[in-house]
Specification:
Structural class: alpha/beta
Oligomer: single chain
Largest sheet: 7 strands, mixed
CATH class of the largest domain: Alpha Beta
Bound molecules: pyridoxal-5'-phosphate
Shape: globular
CATH topology of the largest domain: Aspartate Aminotransferase, domain 2
Helix content: 40-55%
Strand order of the largest sheet: 2-8-7-6-5-3-4
């Protein structure tokens, strides 16, 4: 053989990336020991050890691409320490920001296991067990939330992708021409999609990416409680049909991202049925609450949706990333996504055709995301998830209660496990309307300071022009103790900022 490497070198390749079984065992044990310690230490750490961008860049190091190696034991140890010292911990009991959950430890181990076996869950033949585990995970999620068991679905990276899959299935199903082949270029008639103005930003991306353009979105106003105004939806659809637009899809929210509000899904489903529109429900956050026996009729009305997007990395406490799309009619997924290139021969002989997930979604090669979710279900069972979700909701109610007990705090909404509130200095409580701008600025500064201090972590929302703090509990580590501490923290920071920020009367 010609070339730089001798036959001998190619026969006994000295590949430094590989690690012997013995070393792997040692490295793995040491890593697991460090991580166990890290997890135990979480409650005693701050939610975040705030550093500037520059400082963090310096911590990561400004070196160029390494030209040599590092001992993997040292490498893992140092990297674990770096991450443990300077990350923001959504697994901290005091973390109540956004909708990011604490990760279940079984899921962490599941991800490790999944990458060790390294299945390509694009095709059954490449991942027989993993494909069936994913299929089972999908059907368990459907069962948990009361979606028809005959549904199809797949795992994706998160809520945005899950919504895209539903959007594309709906686009294909309800566009009156072959949109996959012809696109929208030749058409003079324009498609329209409908959602409330409280919808998460995924819908901008979907309308943009999938060729409709954001002008195709009809933003239906939401009422004061953040629900889509159903009458306005109906009128808008009617008006659009009259002038020749083609309505194809309504995206309802079950647990809006800002406040957790659940749209009137039953009424929206009636309108979709009457107009033959695809009903997609973005339940990325709220979906799992449908598992509660006491869930509202609207939450339970998911069984009427053509597609549902939800996030196991939210209320099933799976480590990132894990999103799921459920589609009522499984055929809609292959209709929307399958192509049959001749370099893939994955149709096996046998009585039951295998599931090849690459035909049912956007990805080709796919990781084994289902495993961490499946292990969680197996570890504790469905009812335990129902309990954890119910407790999260009860803790959010408790936040509202402790807020309402304080004269300096004002609560706004409480839907699912999200409570919104703000700080109002005592002497301004009669002038909230006149002082709106100041109170917005004050609460915005308050949030920045609170996040920086790292004792607790909440995020924000803007409700019809009012800037509010927003606590969202999707965290099995949060207890009543953290909830009861929250008012103190907010009031202390609020008072001190008010002294500095209050405009002097001129
Ligand atoms: C979180 C969320 C999304 C986005 O999901 P990602 O997992 O962050 O991609 C979309 N819609 C709603 C209602 C959400 O709560």
């Amino acid at each position: 053989m010609s070339g730089e490497y001798s036959d001998e070198a190619l026969r006994n390749r000295n590949v430094s990336i590989d690690i012997s079984g013995e070393d792997f065992r040692k490295l793995g044990h040491a890593l697991v020991d460090d991580l166990a310690e890290f997890l135990e230490s979480l409650p005693n750490r701050k939610v975040v050890n705030s550093k500037s961008v520059k400082e963090v860049q310096a911590l990561v190091g400004n070196d160029s691409l390494p030209q040599g190696g590092t001992d993997p034991g040292t490498l893992l140890k140092d990297t674990t320490k770096l991450l443990a010292d300077y990350s923001l911990f959504n697994g901290h009991p005091g973390f109540m920001g956004y909708v990011t959950s604490s990760a279940a430890p079984i899921g962490m181990l599941g991800d490790f296991l999944a990458s060790a076996v390294n299945q390509n869950v694009g095709a059954w033949q490449l991942s027989p067990v993993a494909t069936e585990v994913e299929a089972q995970t999908i059907s368990w999620i459907a069962e948990l939330i009361g979606y028809p068991s005959t549904c199809g679905g797949l795992m994706v990276s998160g809520g945005n992708m899950a919504n895209f899959v539903g959007f594309l299935a709906g686009r294909k199903s309800r566009t009156p021409w072959d949109i996959r082949k012809e696109g929208i270029q030749k058409q003079t008639r324009q498609l329209r999609v409908y959602c409330s103005d409280a919808t998460h930003t995924w819908v901008h991306k979907a309308a943009d990416l999938f060729g409709l353009g954001t002008d195709a979105i009809r933003w239906i106003p939401s009422d004061l409680d953040q629900h889509m105004d159903v009458e306005k939806l109906e009128l808008q659809i009617e008006a659009d049909i009259k002038v020749g637009f083609i309505p194809i899809l309504v995206a309802a929210s079950a647990g809006t991202v800002a406040t957790g509000a659940v749209d009137h899904i039953n009424k929206i489903a009636d309108i979709c049925e009457a107009n033959d529109l695809w009903l997609h429900v973005d339940r990325a956050y709220g979906a799992m609450a449908a598992a509660l026996p006491e869930a509202s009729e609207d939450l339970k009305a998911i069984s009427r949706a053509d597609s549902v997007a939800l996030d196991p990395h939210k209320w099933l406490y799976a480590p990132l990333e894990a999103g799921t799309t459920l589609v009522k009619n499984p055929q809609d997924l292959s209709d929307a996504f399958a192509f049959n290139p001749d370099y893939y021969q994955f149709d096996l002989e046998g009585d039951q055709p295998p599931t090849n997930y690459f035909e049912l979604g956007l990805q080709n090669s796919r990781g084994f995301r289902a495993l961490k979710v499946w292990l969680g279900f197996k570890q504790v069972g469905g009812p335990a998830f129902v309990d954890m979700i119910r407790q999260d909701i009860q803790l959010a109610q408790a936040i509202k209660e402790v807020i309402d007990q304080s004269k300096e705090l004002e609560s706004f909404t409480r839907h699912l496990s999200i409570t919104t509130f703000r700080y109002v200095p005592n002497d301004l409580s009669d002038q909230k309307a006149e002082q709106l701008d100041y109170l917005n600025q004050l609460n915005e500064a308050l949030l920045t300071q609170l996040q920086k201090e790292g004792e607790a972590f909440v995020s924000n929302a803007v409700l019809h022009g009012t800037y509010v703090l927003r606590a969202c509990i999707v965290n099995f580590r949060t207890t009543l103790n953290e909830i009861e501490k929250l008012p103190e923290i907010v009031i202390r920071i609020g008072r001190s900022l008010d002294v500095d920020m209050r405009p002097q009367p001129s």
